[in-house]
Design goal:
The complex is a heterodimer of chains A (about 300) and B (about 130). Chain A is an alpha/beta fold and about 300 residues long. Chain A has helices at about 1-20, 30-90, 95-125, 140-155, 175-195, 225-230, 250-260, and strands spanning about 135-140, 160-165, 170-175, 200-205, 210-220, 265-270, 275-285, 290. A 5-stranded parallel sheet of chain B has the order 2-1-3-4-5, with helices on both faces. The longest helix of chain B is centred in the last third of the chain and has 16 residues, at about 115-130. Classes of the chains: A alpha/beta (about 300), B alpha/beta (about 130).
């Protein structure tokens, strides 16, 4: 602050001293115009400096918040891993309790790996270092494997799962099966977490003349227009829903968007508060990608 | 653990954390020494305190919606739970978080990840301090 005040004084001082030495103040239109121009330039400099300083401080604060969010999401699973194993090693517990703690620790290890892989792949997608590896995908098999993956979570939260698949011919389409599977599981997990007990979540894959449409639909709490606008931003988390199972990291939807766009596709959300949510992915029949895998 | 010279009841603990794996781990690990209840919902803490009468709360700072500091301040305003020991859990290690935890009415802070024996020592220390 002191430095800035000295800087402003240094800029203004010659101007003021010049006026004082003349012993008179501007009288001609030329003098008045020049003084006004100088005043405007000085004011613009001051305002630009303040804006830049505030912007840098806001960006730094945001970066710190985002770093803390990721640190939190990485350290939390470590608590049940380290905590659980420490008890098994040191405490006198029955075998059933030890088994439960080790299973929880193992599950947390998988969660940790999943988050790390998403973080790494997100970064690679952002820098164009990860392109979809294209190969044939059987629509029916993809739907079934995704629904099986989230079946446990849905059952735990009392949410019904429905599926449909409308594919013609061989029932296959082209894409990166691993990446798309991760995207669909992420969308389904979100749908289940934000759907109250007794509600329903569905996944459908439909073959259209010029695209493959994948739709995740839920009867959950829905989203406001403001939430939809920020939904695919990095680290954005929607509050509400059942966070008691696992709070989202805020990276999954951003990762999903990057994967879909890397295929040359689009992802869109239709929702209203209290009316459920529909997330639709449309992939071109011949998506963008890196290489062909043999079936 | 004993509740006092007349009983051998396990002291009651309330665990508040939005992470399911942490709640499950602490419930199983602490069960031999404590009677444990847990919740992810900060809004339920006051009603659980009234019904369950815990002797200590282990409270995560970073909860969705109402954070641990706000919950602690709310607890301190109620006469019956004014002196209830609160042990905060957090992933942060900085002095600012530690001071904020004390200012919010906490009696201690334990940093995640931690080993369960360390958590138990901290809980026992706070329970003994509360008895004096």
């Amino acid at each position: 602050m002191l430095f800035e005040r000295l800087l402003y004084a240094t800029v203004l001082a010659p101007f003021v001293l010049e006026r004082l030495s003349k012993g008179s103040w501007p009288s001609t239109p030329w003098d008045i115009g020049a003084d006004i121009l100088i005043g405007i330039l000085i004011l613009a400099f001051i305002l630009l400096r303040e804006y830049t300083k505030n912007t840098v401080e806001r960006v730094d604060a945001l970066r710190e918040t985002l770093n803390q969010a990721i640190i939190h999401d990485l350290k939390n699973p470590m608590t049940s891993i380290i905590g659980g194993i420490s008890v098994v090693l040191e405490e006198d517990l029955d075998e059933a309790a030890k088994g439960k703690l080790l299973r929880i620790a193992l599950h947390s290890c998988h969660l940790q790996m999943e988050l790390l892989e998403t973080l790494v792949d997100t970064s690679r997608l952002e820098f164009g270092e990860l392109a979809p590896r294209l190969g044939p995908i059987r629509g029916k098999a993809l739907v079934e494997s995704c629904l099986k993956e989230i079946g446990g979570l849905a059952s735990h939260l009392g949410v019904v799962i429905e599926k449909s698949e409308k594919m013609s011919g061989s029932g296959t389409f082209v894409g990166d099966e691993d990446l798309l599977r991760r995207v669909l599981i992420n969308l389904l997990q979100n749908a289940v977490k934000y759907t109250p007990k007794g509600g329903a979540v569905s996944l459908s894959i439909t073959e259209e003349p010029d695209a493959i449409a994948m739709v995740v639909r839920d009867s959950g709490i829905g989203l406001s227009r403001e939430q939809i606008a920020r939904l695919f931003k990095k680290y954005y988390r929607v509050e509400g829903g059942d966070q008691s199972v696992r709070r989202g990291s805020g990276i999954g939807l951003y990762f999903s968007k990057l994967v879909v766009e890397a295929h040359g596709g689009t992802i869109a959300v239709d929702s209203k508060p209290g009316s459920g949510t529909v997330v639709q992915i449309r992939l071109p029949r011949r998506p963008a990608g890196k290489e062909e895998r043999q079936p | 653990m004993t509740d006092g010279p007349q009983t051998r009841q396990r002291p009651r603990l309330l665990i508040v954390d939005d992470d399911l794996t942490i709640r499950e781990t602490l419930e199983i690990a602490l069960a031999p020494s404590f009677e444990v209840r847990s919740t992810a919902a900060g809004d339920e803490v006051s009603s659980i305190i009234e019904a369950f009468h815990p002797r200590l709360i282990v409270l995560d700072i970073n909860l969705p919606g109402t954070d641990g500091f706000q919950i602690s301040e709310r607890i301190r305003k109620v006469g019956s739970s004014h002196r209830l020991p609160i042990l905060f859990m957090t992933v942060r290690r900085d002095d600012r978080t530690f001071l904020a935890a004390l200012a919010a009415g906490g009696d201690g802070v334990i940093t995640k990840p931690f080993e369960i024996p360390e958590l138990k020592r901290r809980i026992v220390d706070l329970l003994r301090s509360a008895e004096r």
